[in-house]
Amino acid sequence: ALAQAIRRLREAGIQLSDRRIVKSQRLIAAAALLRGHREASEADLWPLLYVLPTRETQQHGREVLKDLLAQCNNSHLFSAVEEATLQPMARLHRLLETAEDYLGRSEPPASPLLEALLREIDANFNSQTIPQRLHEVRGKVAHLLSAQA
Fold it and tell me: Where is the ATPase RavA-like AAA lid domain (predicted)?
């Protein structure tokens, strides 16, 4: 996956030195370990954006690698992955964690918090793309909101 990503970056005019490629390999391996896997996959490619030298290059790289970065996620570093990739699947763990926190409270959160969470879920996923677990949790949050009304 890394070789494919580097080829795409080069085709788009983004050159990486050998040193930066080696650095990205180490960062991607670390991301895989933090995700609990011994081997890296497409889900671990997000650190590649941080070896690109400028913000503009990072943004261009994000656009070039959009489809590869769509599968990036990490339940422990979801904020970093979300920031790096700007992809809905990167937000999945944070959305699930927030929803489960709200549902697990003895005193439900205020309606605006529930509405904001539902809005964010709906802004990132449609009925075809929403993961099953998030779909289930979304239904429970919507039920909680309607019970408050």
Answer: 10-59
- Which residues of the chain fall below pLDDT 50? 77-78
Q: pTM of the full predicted structure?
A: 0.52
What pLDDT shows up at residue 54? 85
Rounded-to-integer distance, Cα 31 and Cα 46, Å: 8
Structural domain range at position 68: 2-85
- The count of structural domains within the chain is 2
pLDDT at 83: 59
Quote the CA–CA distance of 104 and 2 in Å, as a whole number. Answer: 39
Of 143, 137, 144, 103, residue with least CA distance to 120: 137
**How crowded is residue 63: how many other Cβ atoms within 10 Å of its Cβ?**
11
CA torsion angle 107 93 81 128 (round to 10): -120
